[in-house]
Amino acid sequence: MVSENEVKTADLIFPLFLLEGKNKSIGIDSMPGISRLSLDLMLKEIGECMELGVQAFDIFPVVEESYKDTMATYSYKSSNFYLQALREIKHQFPEAVIMTDVAMDPYSSDGHDGIVKDGKILNDETLEVLGKMALAQAETGIDIIGPSDMMDGRVGYIREVLDENGFSETSIMSYTAKYASAFYGPFRDALDSAPKWGDKKTYQMDPANKREALIEAELDMQEGADFLMVKPALAYLDVIHLLKDNSDLPIAAYNVSGEYAMVAAAAEKGWIDKDRAAHEILLSIKRAGADIILTYFAKQFALQMRNNG
Ligand code: PBG
Asked: Of the given ranges (57-61, 187-191, 263-267), which has the lowest mean pLDDT?
């Protein structure tokens, strides 16, 4: 009765990694308990999760090196297995909330989120690629576009492209305050998408900065974002709180791969109770002000709730 906060399964978005092909499940060494799945197995996984009450999924493609180029052209080709899979997933589970990722890095031979020229990231030129990618994804019938690239002006640009093409109902969850973080390591293993050189510090935010998150939030709100997201979550609980206090949009937080890996690795060694640690972490993110949490703990948490409830 006196609990001020509660984590509900319905608050969670489960990130999933899609492989091309059939009947493939490949574990991720740095994320014990999480696997990359081909479409057939992913449909099964989504079905199981839906039965447990997980209703939202953020799907990322694992793209073969041979499809990658400097302009990420594969990201909007109609032959793209990711786009085809999204269509099938929405067809089989129309009631599931499907979120997609808009950024060049899974498709880029440079491993960067923007076009690279002479060692620099070209912001404005990248927007055109992001617009094409977002439109191709919206055409599959998905619900939420997730621009994770941190190029300036991309929310407004994508909103305009979507609206002009009749997708005014497709919403945008902006990665508003996405920090240049060490906690993305396991995700880059999962996708084999680490930058080939340099780092992402020229476009992702400086972990030392908090007020800058307000500027990013203001811009995203003006540009038409439907949700604001903070990423990572745990080392940035203060930023989640700040955005919650300064925006009336739903606030999401991404409990990222490295945050999951720390708990999963310690649990494998028997040093920590995975279920209890996960619950406490999710609660802390809610307490900080997040309405929605993207987390690799989603299915585990839902199982835990069902078994205890
Ligand atoms: C890239 C992207 C990243 C994540 C989501 N989209 C990694 C990065 O910026 O290098 C990280 C998610 C996680 O660590 O769980 N556009």
From this structure: 187-191
* Ligand 1 nearest atom to the CA of residue 195, by list position: 10
What the block records as the tokens of 119 is: 């060692």
Query: Could you tell me the two tokens for 23?
Result: 């009947």
Cis, peptide link before residue 195, omega less than 30° from 0: no
Which element (helix H / strand E) includes 133? helix 123-138
Q: Which residues line ligand 1 (CB under 6 A)?
A: 101, 103, 105, 113, 148-149, 184, 187-188, 200, 256-257
Residue 307, C-beta contacts closer than 8 angstroms, at least 6 positions apart:
none
Average pLDDT along the chain: 96
Catalytic hit among 68, 200, 231, 299:
231
What is the 309 CA–ligand 1 centroid distance (Å)? Answer: 33
Q: pLDDT band for position 309 (50/70/90)?
A: low
Nearest atom in ligand 1 to the alpha carbon of residue 185 is 14
What is the mean pLDDT of the segment spanning 303-307? 94
CA distance 136 to 139: 5
d(CA 143, CA 172): 9
Probe target for ligand 1 pocket from 75, 108, 184, 254, with the most ligand atoms within 8 Å of CB: 184
Contacts of 2 (CB under 8 A, 6+ apart): none
pLDDT above 70 covers what percent of the chain?
100
Q: How far apart are CA 121 and CA 129, in angstroms?
A: 13
For a ligand 1 pocket test, name from 149, 150, 256 the mutation site with the most ligand atoms within 8 angstroms of its C-beta: 256
Cα of 187 from ligand 1 centre, angstroms: 6
Q: What is the pLDDT of residues 61-80, one digit of tens each?
A: 999 999 999 999 999 999 99
Give the mean pLDDT of 113-121: 92
Alpha-carbon Rg for the chain in angstroms: 18
What is the pTM (predicted TM-score) of this model? 0.97
